[in-house]
Each structure stands twice: as structure tokens, then as C-alpha cells.
Amino acid sequence: MRTHRPTPELPSHLEALYRQFPFERSLSDDPLSSIRPLAHDVRSAEVLGIVAATLAIGNTTAIRGALARLLGRTTGRPEVWLLRTPAPERARILSSFRHRWIRGDQVDYLARVLAEYYAHHASLEESFLEGYSAAGFPGGLDRLSRVFRGADHRDRLGKAPPGYFALFPSPLEKPRSPCKRMTLFVRWMVRERYPDLGFWRRVPTGDLRVPLDQHVHWIAYNLGLTARRTRSWAAVEEVSEALRRIDPVDPIKFDFVLCHTGISGDCPKERDLRVCGPCSVRPDCRLWRGRKVAA
After folding, report:
1. How far apart are CA 126 and CA 21, in angstroms?
2. Which of 88, 105, 184, 240 could form a Cys-Cys staple with 211, CB 3.0–4.6 A?
3. CA distance 166 to 118
4. What's the alpha-carbon Rg for the chain, to the nearest Å?
5. Cβ contacts of 292 within 8 Å, gap of 6 or more
6. Does residue 53 share a domain with residue 196?
7. In 3D, which of 10, 3, 13, 4 has the Cα closest to residue 279?
8. Is residue 295 a part of any domain in this protein?
């Protein structure tokens, strides 16, 4: 099959999809709906954001359910509970928590890492910017990855639980993961426009990278935003650059729209005129290439 390239009309069609998108409907099915009411300041946003992003594995119903079960174990403000509860008590309360392959002991270790970090820093933005200034956006993610792995305080944190480091991949390390959950966390922190949280003010929105989940990748591939059939950091860069050509200032505004177009079933991932007919980007889609639809 020959390479499918974006049509000249795709930018205007994507903008139309964005303008018409039912954000409120989709926000209720997104982990952001659980943490937005609790994100009162930068620290609460960061703590709850990285916990929610770390749990963002599987379908949105399961993710929101896991987040509700986890937050239901806390008392008072959840970020305060996670950071200040005595370690033995927190470990006991979290010990039976499970979501897919994520375990309570891993969440407890993340809380220990964050508590140690905040004893010396005001915000995770500081560390992201440290990596960003050295190696751009991938460097920022790499620095955050090392922070979440506890690399700066390993002597005080002790040995991490099995599988913990894999939760925080870096785009600078093989196999060059798409780092979907890490880029999702940064998107939440940086973008001020709805539905994101916008507590980080020093990272340019134009330099964000797309959180490339299976829905975004499938749609991006079929719109010609990437020619790569598998998700990887290279595919992240291709899709992000293609979106940056459409909106240089806020390219990742399309992420939520594309993701929830897939989640909601508005993109059936097959030719179905009953569903695809009203879609703004149907004329750009590989599945409809060369097919005329009667008015």
C-alpha cells in the first residue's frame, strides 16, 4: 500500500473537528475528570497528575475505577495523605491495591520518591526544565523519568519494587518507548486551555509531544500524520511535527480530540457511513481514499 499523505484540506478539517468536539461529554470519561476538582495548586496537580497518568493503562472505565479505588484509601486531601502519611501505615493501606500490572507497593514507592523530592524542590517543572535546557523535550522527559525512578535519592529510598522502573520510560533509552503516560502528564501540566490543568508556565506549548495511545496512533496513521505502523518515539515525533505544522503554538490541542474520537466510537476504525458521514476528517482518511459519497 502506498504511503498515505495528509491532504491539503486536513488542517482546516482538523480545526473543524476541534471546534465541534463535545469536550464535556468526553471529559467525564477521562482520568482528568477525577483529578481536576482536586488540583488546587501546582503540588496537588503534580502528585495527582503523575498518579493518574501512571494508572492510565487499559480502557478509561478501568482507569477511572482504579483511580477511584486508590483515592478512596486516602483521607483528607489525597496528595497530602500520599506525601505525609507515615511510610509503614501508607504501605499497609496500599498493599492490596491492584490495577492491571501496577501494584500498591509501586504506588507507595512513588509516594516515597515524591515526598523526598518535594523536601528539596517546589515543583517537578524545575527538573523537567533542567533536562529540557540540555536536550529539548526528550531531555525533559528523561530527567522526569530519573526523578520518578528515585535516581537522585536512591540511598535514602532503598530498593524499588519489582517492575517499578518500567513505569517511567525515557525516550532517550532503548527501545525508544512512545512514553505515552509521561507525555500525557506533561500535557496536563503545561496546557492552560481546557481541559488541561496548566500549572507549568515555563514550558512552551508549541514544543509538547503527543501522548501516542492506540487510538491517536490509529487515527494519525490513517490521516497520514505518520507512516509508522507501530507506536514508538519516532512515531511520536512524526505526529507531533505534523500537528505543529497545523498549529505551531498549540499543536497538542488535537490530542484529546483524536483520543476521545477513538474512545467514544465516533471513529469506528472501519468504513461505516452512518458514523463516518458527519466526521470532519473523513475526506482525509485512508479508509475513504478515492471513495465518493453522495450528498
Report:
1. 34
2. 184
3. 22
4. 20
5. none
6. yes
7. 13
8. no
